[in-house]
Amino acid sequence: MERIYLDHAATSPMDERVLEKMKPHFFGSFGNPSSIHSFGRESRKWVDEARADIAREISAKEQEIIFTSGGTEADNLAILGTAAARKNEGKHIITTAIEHHAVLHACEKLEEDGFEVTYLIPGPSGRISANQVKEALRDDTILVTVMYGNNEVGTIQPIDEIGELLSGHQAYFHTDAVQAFGYIPIDVKKSRIDMLSVSGHKLNGPKGTGFLYVNQEVKLSPILLGGEQERKRRAGTENVPGIAGLKEAVVLSNREREEKTAMFKEFKNIIMSTLEKAGVTAEVNGDAENCLPHILNLYFPGVPVESLLVNLDMEGIAVSSGSACTAGSVLPSHVLTAMFGSESGRLTSSIRLSFGLGNTAEQIETAAEKLAAVVKRLA
Q1: Catalytic residues
Q2: Are 192 and 168 in contact (CB under 8 A)?
Q3: What CATH number is associated with residue 290?
Q4: Cα–Cα distance for residue pair 69/239, rounded to 1 Å
Q5: What backbone torsions phi and psi does residue 367 show, to the nearest 5 degrees?
Q6: Which catalytic reaction applies to this protein (predicted)?
Q7: Do 333 and 350 meet the contact criterion of CB atoms below 8 Å apart?
C-alpha cells in the first residue's frame, strides 16, 4: 500500500538539493564561525553568504537577519525581546486569537509579567481587518503581532494594510510567516514589516533552523545569553550546516513558488471535485479568496474527526486535524473556536490537508477517492 503524506503544514521532507548543500559543512568546513583561524574564517564566509542571500530574498539588509533554531525561537525573540527592550515605552500588545502557540504562549507569559494583550477575534473566514487593529491601537501599544498565513486554515491576513496603518505609530509590526513564507512573495520594506519569523522545516529545509528578520531601527533585547554571536542578539554557536541548508531552501522555495502554487491549486480542485462526484458534503474552513495554496481545511458535517483520522491512516493517508490529541483527550482547535465559536460542530468534524514536495496529481486523486469512501462509511 502506497503511503501518501498530506501533512506538509506540520513538517516537510528535506529536499535532496538542500542536503547536498549541507554535506560539506559536516566534515570539511566544520570550524566555529567565531574562531579567527582559517577553519573558523571559512565557516564564517558561508554564514555571511547565507545571511546575504536570505536578506536579498525579502528585500532586507544583511545585518537585519538573525539565525535562530526555528520559528518558535524567532517568535519568542520578537515578542519577548521587544517587551524587554520597550517596557518603559508602553505595556500594551495586540495580536489575534488564531496565532500559533509560539506567539500566544509568549503573550500569555507577558500578561503574567504585567503587560496587557488584546486578542483580535476574526470572522468565520479566519481573517481580521486592519480596522480591528486600528480600533485596538493605543498610545502605549509597543507591538502588533499578526501571522501572515494561518497554519490550520490557510487564511492570509491583510499584512500590507496593517503595515501601512502602523507606519506612523510607535508600535513595531511583527508577523509569523512560518506557514506563508515560500508561498507568497514577501517584501518586508514594501509591507512595512519590522520583524518576520521563518522556519526551515516548513520549506523542505532542515529541522532546527530558522531566522528572524529585524529592521535595523528596532530595539530588541536578547532572550538567550552567552556569547556575542549574531551581533549580540542571539547567543550560541551558529549551526553552519543548518544555515547552509536553510539558505538553499529559502532560495529554492522562492524560485519555484509560482509553479508550486499552480500545482497545489489544482490539487485542491481535484479533491473538491472528487468529493462532489462521490456525493460527499464538504465545506471549506477559511477564506477562499485569501488562502495559502498548500492548505485545505475541510468540514465534514457529522463525521467524528478521530475516527476519520484513524481510518485515513489505515488507508495510508496522512492528514491532521485542528485538534491536539493528548492522552486520549481531544482539545478543540483554538483557531476554529475563534472563527466559529465553542459550540460549532466544525471543531470536531474538520481535517487539514496540506501539500508539498513529493505529492503528485495521481496521489491526490487516490487520496481524494479514499477520503470520499471513508467519509461515506462514517457518516
Answers
A1: 325
A2: no
A3: 3.90.1150.10
A4: 9
A5: -65, -40
A6: (sulfur carrier)-H + L-cysteine = (sulfur carrier)-SH + L-alanine
A7: yes
DSSP 8-state symbol, 31 = S
- Provide the number of structural domains found in the chain: 1
Q: State the cell numbers at 374.
A: 471513508
Residues 196/212, Cβ–Cβ less than 8 Å: yes
Task: Say which residues have a Cβ less than 8 Å from residue 319's Cβ, sequence separation at least 6.
Answer: 6, 7, 309, 312, 351, 352, 353, 354
The answer as to whether 73 is a domain residue is no
Q: What is the pLDDT, as a whole number, of residue 379? A: 83
| pLDDT for residue 330 | 60
Q: Which residues contact 331 (CB under 8 A, 6 or more apart)?
A: 323, 324, 325
Let me know if residue 370 belongs to a domain. yes
CA atoms of 43 and 240, how far apart (whole Å): 7
First to last CA, the chain: 25
Q: Which domain holds residue 279?
A: 4-12+257-378
* Residue 309 covered by a domain: yes
| pLDDT beyond 50 at 255 | yes
Q: Residue 68 falls within a domain, yes or no? A: no
Name the residue among 93, 144, 88 with its Cα closest to residue 116.
Answer: 93
Rg of the Cα trace of the chain?
21
